[in-house]
């Protein structure tokens, strides 16, 4: 992503991202960092319309792609959107993208939406609101209502948007007028399913999203009734596993971290709800008759090859695959349990705060030089485990040779097999202890 003057976009349209904001400097900076992290190959600018009492001095100095406008009088959201559209026209932008300051998108949002618009071709692109992050309670909600897109996820071709009525002079439903008079506004909006392109619709104290349409409920499981996988939720979990979310600094994004303290990445936030759902689902599949039959598909949905495609092919949906047809229920359950423990241990380690005193007084540890044993490099810290494995192999091999009348070669193979299984058990116990402590 870069400024248009120096961009070699290879034909990708020039995008003008508009952010309208009021008295939320931390959210504004978070949104700009998300835009900066986008993997879009073409040119991108951000136009900020801010009618806060005092201007934000950090924006233009820190973000070279941003054009910041401080409005001296209070304006409606619709008015600010119209002002941003006019500035995008002055820039010569091809696409206008709406980006609310409090929502959180994956790093491929712009590329995926524009690729779909170019392929179809379409005048608009939007994203279904499938997940709601509630800041006050720290809860992740799933929407089971209508697959509605809101203004905060739209991309428009500028030429088409300028041919439509302007945004209404209001701060609720200001974009409805854009689609007035169209026979099928839903088809024109081209909403992308939340399973394909997940994002977190963030609800603050000032949010006005209609619960009667979205029907949000708290996430407790990724299995819907009766005994069916909730593929959009599994897709959201998979997007965390595949690091499709930006790593942000600063504060004010409770959607990424339940407590309002500085955060490093998404895994310390609402991903906790997904881990808890994963654990509950695993217990259900183990304990309910017939539940294990879902395990292979559940594992495949979590580990499917979900890399977002490039330009025109981007219209294809992601998901499926993962070799589920090669996995039996028990094998899939074991993989799910091992994966869950690894994710929980990893999160536990990353949540531990570092001590400033230690960083000031303790020198950095030097990397251990590997030992050479019979020409092989061996990490000194792994030497005790290696010796233990060899000892188990030797003892069990000797028992096999003496008690079971095995040949020496067969006894060695059996000894090594048992030793490797013992090593797996030891490592599993060690990871479990690390997680608990």
TrEMBL record:
One protein family per Pfam: Glycos_transf_2
Domain of life: Eukaryota
Glycosyltransferase 2-like domain sequence ranges: 16-131
GO molecular function, one term: hexosyltransferase activity
InterPro entries named in the record: Glyco_trans_2-like (IPR001173), Nucleotide-diphossugar_trans (IPR029044)
Protein name per UniProt: Glycosyltransferase 2-like domain-containing protein
Annotated organism of origin: Effrenium voratum
